[in-house]
Write a structure and sequence with these properties.
This protein is α/β, with parallel strands linked by helices. Helix content is 27%, strand content 17%.
Length: 222
């Protein structure tokens, strides 16, 4: 979704955007195509990708999310972009790092990486990490010296409707009455932290009149 937000703004400014997605369960390829973007699909390969991995290819914490080895993914991506010769290649995937980025170097002018983990090396011109409290020092030795690192919520990739409703939301807060609490830990809560938060909130009497909503969603890959 954050790539779509970026693409929508770039398209508004006259850029031509293309998407390359792997067909994982829950992918958003149909939505991307409906928004008018040329979309290239890659098939999900065997889950036993480590038997195919090149010895030089790093094993990342999220490597199994890729549905391919980095080597094969880079080869398939190269076949698509070598004719496009994009000015910018935007990458947003936890299972890709500098190993993949360097293999595509001959076929793009610049690369922008979207990340929020700061757990692997990148070879890029610009890196965006919109995490609250993130500091560019978190990417010390993870990005090249020439890379422009944009960290923190100042660079959050928000859809236009957030700006549209901002003033309305601020006005609603002026009476200081708390009526709803939304709990959202993102796409994954493997340690069930949400339940602990709910139990703690239930213990506070002043929240008896408040409606709690627990929002949880499965991660979408692709």
């Amino acid at each position: 979704m954050r790539c779509l937000t970026l693409a929508d703004e770039l398209a508004h400014q006259g850029a031509k955007c293309h998407f390359i997605c792997r067909e994982h369960e829950g992918h958003l390829i149909k939505l991307i195509a409906q928004k008018g973007y040329d979309t290239y699909k890659l098939e999900v390969e065997s889950q036993d990708i480590f038997n195919k991995k090149n010895d030089n290819e790093p094993v990342l914490f999220h490597s199994k999310w890729l549905g391919s080895t980095q080597e094969e993914d880079a080869r398939q991506t190269k076949e698509i972009i070598k004719t496009l010769q994009p000015e910018w290649l935007v990458i947003d995937h936890y299972a890709l790092d500098s190993y993949w980025e360097k293999k595509l170097r001959p076929h793009y002018n610049n690369i922008l990486v979207i990340d929020d983990l700061a757990d692997r090396k990148h070879d890029c011109e610009v890196l965006i990490d919109q995490t609250f409290g993130r500091d560019e020092q978190d990417y010390h030795n993870l990005a090249p010296n020439h890379c422009e690192i944009l960290c923190g919520t100042t660079y959050a990739l928000l859809r236009p409707e957030f700006s549209k409703w901002r003033q309305y939301s601020l006005e609603r807060r002026k009476d200081n009455s708390l009526q709803h609490v939304l709990i959202n830990l993102g796409g994954v809560d493997k340690d069930n932290i949400t339940s602990h938060i709910l139990e703690l909130l239930k213990k506070h009497l002043y929240l008896n009149h408040v409606k709690l909503r627990w929002l949880w969603a499965l991660p979408l890959h692709g």
